[in-house]
Amino acid sequence: MAEAKQLVTDLFKSYGITIPAHRMQLFDRFLLEEQNLAILHQLRKNQEQLMANWKIEDRIAEIVQQPIRIPNATVGKPYTAPFDFEQYGWNDLIAFRIEGLEALGLTYSAENNQLTGIPTQSGDLKFSVYFKVEGQPEEAPFHQKDIPLIINPDPKGLWKNLESDKNDPYWKEDEVTLFSPLGDRHLLVSSKRGRSHANVGSFREDDFAYKELPNGWNVVVVSDGAGSAKLSRKGSALACAGVVNYFLDPASVESMIEFDHLLQQHASQTGDDTQKNLNRFVYNNLGKAAFQVHKQLESFAKAQEVTLKDLSSTLIFTLFKKYDVGYALLSFGVGDCPIAVLSKDVTEVTLMNWIDVGEFGGGTRFITMPEIFQNEKFATRFGFKLLADFSYLIMMSDGIYDPKFVVEANLPNIAKWQEFLADLQGQNEDKAPVELSTTNPEIEAQLSRWMDFWSSGNHDDRTLAIVF
User: Fold this and answer.
1) What's the rounded Cα separation, in Å, for the pair 362 and 238?
2) pTM for this predicted structure
3) Residue limits of the PPM-type phosphatase domain (predicted)?
4) Model confidence over 178-223: pLDDT tens digits?
5) Domain 175-467 in CATH: superfamily?
6) β-bridge mates for residue 80, sequence order
7) Domain boundaries, the chain
8) Which of 39, 80, 222, 255 is most enclosed, with most CB atoms within 10 A?
9) pLDDT at residue 282 tops 60
């Protein structure tokens, strides 16, 4: 009774009615009247319902305003993130539905309490949870809570792919991928314009060439034009063509016959003399080829009234020929492009050149530099190996070397080359395999796709040549 009396007293007071002391007995009888007791009962019920309604509204507002942070996603990359109602304290939801995920490429699993999928668009986006809480009637409307989600753009998608100027006198294809027999082996080679060049519509600076020579030798050439040199695309093309043309020249074809005799002596004799004679032969013949390329570039620069530096390009080339005793491999290299030969069982790697890094403070050297021919280390730029057999002869520009090997110290490590082959075979982020088989009709398309691998900060031209 006291509670009811206080309730009515407060109610009357809110309307400016105060019960004086001499009216208290009358007030007590008033409260006990049947009709007034019924009103009091209803008043209590209304009061309780009002408080219940307020708690529901307050809880709904609490959920709507509750900050929920979802891990950022990236367009095109598989995404999994927790989305757990219990963790958010939403145990009092009696019904819900989620809308807007499908448009983002995502789905929600109530079983796993996860958001999963592959995002299809980028931006500061959102999806919505529509919900009801305990205490709401079944026919009550759903309430909306928006969940923000940041989806970052695919880094690859930020790069433009602008056409290079086909009217330029030194224009060349942005990509060339070829598969061809070469001697008793096959050559798979691809040279592709880097993203940094495609983004501004400039040219592929790398180049390559190969040829089966009439004396049983085969030559493969790779050149990387310096990005800072305005005509390096022409310099690399001239360098590659120059090497091939040198070894096609009848005088060069004739001079290579001497190697057959020297190798026969080397195979049948022991001692250092035959090795020295072979090394001298390699130095003389490949050195003449390298110097002739340098002079051709010099002549071109003079004729076009440009500087030799404008044609700056690295140069590596390898000749190989099969003999009864195995394969002879001869090599030359200037710049930061490695040449490697892997043993038949891929347990050993033989490096055919040293690359111009480290010793020169990270700077490379180019075939256009006259000083490389005068340097005391010029003779060490040549290589000769006689191997019973090999699985792969691999040549690459720094567009491949930098992301896949990172530092020079990794090149002598056969485990790194095994990883590289595994990468080629499909153990990569893109799941892009290259089946190195002579009967693979998709081999060119597979290598072309593989060459598009993503490596943050490595967007230079890429050239890769594999003899197998």
Assistant:
1) 25
2) 0.79
3) 186-467
4) 999 999 999 999 999 999 999 999 999 999 999 999 999 999 999 9
5) PPM-type phosphatase domain (3.60.40.10)
6) 116
7) 2-65, 73-158, 175-467
8) 222
9) yes
CA 222 to CA 210: how far, in whole Å?
9
pLDDT at 360: 42
Q: Which two tokens mark 327?
A: 């394969």
Of 269, 78, 237, nearest to 168 by C-alpha is 237
Inter-residue contact 339 to 221 (CB < 8 Å): no
Counting beta carbons within 10 angstroms of the beta carbon of residue 15, is it exposed (0 to 12), middle (13 to 18) or buried (19 or more)? exposed
Contact 219, 211 (CB under 8 A): yes
Q: Does domain 73-158 have CATH number 3.10.450.50?
A: no
Q: How many CA atoms lie within 13 A of 173 on its CB side?
A: 9
pLDDT given for residue 313 in this prediction: 97
3-state SS string for the chain: CHHHHHHHHHHHHHCCCCCCHHHHHHHHHHHHCHHHHHHHHHHHHHHHHHHHHHHHHHHHHHHHHCCCCCCCEECCCCEEEECCCCCCCCCCEEEEEEECCHHHCEEEECCCCEEEECCCCCEEEEEEEEEEECCCCCCCCCEEEEEEEEEECCHHHHCCCCCCCCCCCCCCCCEEEEEEEECCEEEEEEEECCHHHHCCCCCCCEEEEEEECCCCCEEEEEEEECCCCCCHHHHHHHHHHHHHHHHHCHHHHHHCHHHHHHHHHHHHCCCHHHHHHHHHHHHHHHHHHHHHHHHHHHHHHHHCCCCHHHHCECEEEEEEEEECCEEEEEEEEECCCCEEEECCCCCCEEECCCCCCCCCCCCCCCCCCCHHHHCCCHHHHEEEEEECCCCEEEEECHHHHHHHHCCHHHCCCHHHHHHHHHHHCCCCCCCCCCCCCCCCCCHHHHHHHHCCCCCCCCCCCEEEEEEC
**How far apart are the C-alpha atoms of 402 and 24, rounded to whole Å?**
97
The amino acid that residue 137 corresponds to is P
